[in-house]
Amino acid sequence: MSEEPAFRVRDLAVSYGSQVALKDVTLDIEPRKIIAIIGPSGCGKSTLIRCFNRMNDLIPGTRVQGQVLYHGQDIYANDVDPVTVRRNVGMVFQRPNPFPKSIKENVAYGARINGYKGNIDELVERSLRGAALWDEVKDNLNRSALALSGGQQQRLCIARAIAVQPDTILMDEPASALDPVATSKIEDLMQELKERYTIIIVTHNMQQAARVSDKAAFLYTEVNEAGTARWGVLVEYDDTSRIFTNPRDKRTDDYISGRFG
User: Fold this and answer.
1) What is the pLDDT of residues 200-225, one digit of tens each?
2) Which of 17, 124, 152, 228 is the most exposed, fewest CB within 10 Å of its CB?
3) Rounded Cα gap, residues 175 and 185, in angstroms
4) Has this prediction a pTM greater than 0.90?
């Protein structure tokens, strides 16, 4: 029997003030899979991924309707603390954003503020090994994280995310600012991480989505008749191999084949 989904999304809609950003998104996210969110610019990919850890709450005027169930719990219920959600659902952003601290303190920071009582040195080593960075930095843990290369900084941010022991990692264009060698390392790391974590990635890179993901969600922008408003909708969600070789919707086929977007 298949496992229960890590997330169940039902009739999700997101608005920023009077502007609708997403409508009618329904999908299930399976545990320990890599899910790619793809689609043209402005279709709501980043809005969608931020729904999984309530990052949209930080934007004034945001309204979220529908349900996002995380292991059966509605994370938008009134009694749910968004900080607790973010502790379980980590995030890695488009550009590496290490703190102006040492490598060690970057990794330990989240655990410390969450009251971690274990051995910090062991946690730092375990997290850096998990992010495939330990061998490169183990002799310089007190060095400033800002002195690392861009690819190393992004892997450090992944180590920082996994140090608080989440079970899901969100990645919003994690390799778009990196060179091909660093991008390849991030992609290899994702394959290792999915043995322990559910990974949801936003990417504009179709080749990357095809290489790394198990399932893909294609979002598209709809426009009202007057052309005065637009919003994102989920067109298709399926196994990546199906999305890229035999999509059900012509809009998906047109996007994958480069005819628009």
Assistant:
1) 999 999 999 999 999 999 999 999 88
2) 228
3) 10
4) yes
